[in-house]
Specification:
Shape: globular
Strand content: under 5%
Number of strands: 0
Order of helices and strands: HHHHHHHHHHHH
Low-confidence stretches: none
Length: 282
C-alpha cells in the first residue's frame, strides 16, 4: 500500500468513485431511453442488442482488466477506462442507426469492464486492510445510488433534452474524473512485463465467454434446443474447458488463479456475487 496524506487519499477516492459512478450510472440511465431510441432509429427488432453488446463486452473484459491491473498497476487502466468509456458514450450519442449504436455500446462496454474491475481493486493501493471493508461498502453505496437515480434521471433527460443527451452527460463527469484521478491516485509500479501476460488464457477466456453469453442472450428469440443456441453454448463450453486446463496446468501467471477457490471464504463470496448479479440484471 502506498503512503498518502489524508488529503491525497480523499482526492484519490473521489476520483475513483466518480469513475465507478460514471460506469454504473450509464447502465441504469440508458434503460428507460431504449424504447425511444429504438423507435427513433427504426430498430425495434434490434432493441435487446443495445444492452447485450455492452454487457457481453464488459463481462469478458472484467477478469482480463483485473489481472492486468494486478500486474502493471491500476492507475493506467482506470484512466484508459474513463477516457475510452466517455469516448464510446459520445459515439453512442452520435449514432445514426441501430447498428452503429450496438457497435458503439460494445466498444463502451470494453472500457466499462476496465472501470468496474479497477475501481474496487484500487482500494488496495490506497487503504490498509482494516479500512478496505468500510470503503468497499461506500463504493457499493455509490453503485446502489446510481442504480436508484438512473432510471428517473434517464427518463427526464429523454423527455426534456432528447435521448442523445443521456450519452453526452457522461462527458463532463468523465473529464472531472480523469483530472482528479490523474492528479491524486498513486501509480504503483510493478516488475512485470508483457511477456508475463497469459495471452493464451486471455484468448480462450474471451473465445469461450462470448459465444456462451450470446447463446444465452438469443434464447429470447430462439428455442433452447435450436441449432444456433446449442452451437454457441457447446462451442463456448468447449473453449472454456480448454481455458480451465490452460490456467490450471500450463499458465505461469494465470488470468484466473483457480487455486483461490480452495478458500471457502473466497468461494462463498463469489457465489453470493454470482446470484446477486442474476437477481439484479435479471
Amino acid at each position: 500500500m502506498r503512503s498518502l496524506s489524508t488529503r491525497q487519499r480523499a482526492f484519490a477516492t473521489i476520483g475513483v468513485m466518480l469513475a465507478l459512478f460514471l460506469a454504473s450510472l450509464d447502465q441504469s440511465i440508458v434503460s428507460p431511453a431504449l424504447p425511444r431510441i429504438a423507435a427513433d432509429l427504426h430498430g425495434i427488432s434490434l432493441y435487446a442488442w443495445v444492452a447485450t453488446s455492452y454487457l457481453v463486452a464488459s463481462a469478458v473484459f472484467v477478469p482480463i482488466a483485473g489481472k492486468l491491473g494486478d500486474m502493471f498497476g491500476r492507475k493506467p487502466f482506470i484512466l484508459a477506462g474513463i477516457v475510452g468509456f466517455v469516448s464510446g458514450s459520445a459515439l453512442c450519442g452520435l449514432s445514426q442507426n441501430m447498428g452503429e449504436l450496438i457497435a458503439f455500446r460494445g466498444f463502451q462496454g470494453i472500457f466499462g469492464g476496465l472501470l468496474m474491475a479497477s475501481a474496487f481493486t484500487v482500494l488496495a493501493d490506497i487503504y490498509t486492510v482494516e479500512q478496505r471493508t468500510r470503503m468497499q461498502g461506500l463504493f457499493g453505496g455509490v453503485f446502489g445510488l446510481s442504480t436508484m437515480i438512473g432510471p428517473t434521471l434517464g427518463g427526464n433527460i429523454v423527455d426534456h433534452w432528447g435521448w442523445r443527451w443521456i450519452f453526452y452527460v457522461n462527458v463532463p463527469v468523465g473529464v472531472v474524473a480523469v483530472l482528479v484521478t490523474l492528479a491524486a491516485l498513486p501509480y504503483v509500479r510493478s516488475s512485470a512485463n508483457w511477456r508475463d501476460i497469459d495471452f493464451l488464457g486471455v484468448i480462450t477466456l474471451a473465445g469461450g465467454l462470448v459465444p456462451v453469453l450470446l447463446g444465452l442472450s438469443i434464447t429470447t428469440s430462439h428455442a433452447w434446443t435450436s441449432a444456433p443456441v446449442l452451437l454457441l453454448l457447446i462451442g463456448g463450453g468447449i473453449v472454456l474447458g480448454l481455458f480451465v486446463i490452460i490456467e490450471t496446468r500450463y499458465a505461469r501467471n494465470p488470468v484466473v488463479p483457480f487455486g483461490l477457490f480452495r478458500s471457502n471464504q473466497f468461494s462463498v463470496m463469489v457465489g453470493v456475487a454470482f446470484f446477486s448479479g442474476i437477481g439484479m440484471f435479471g
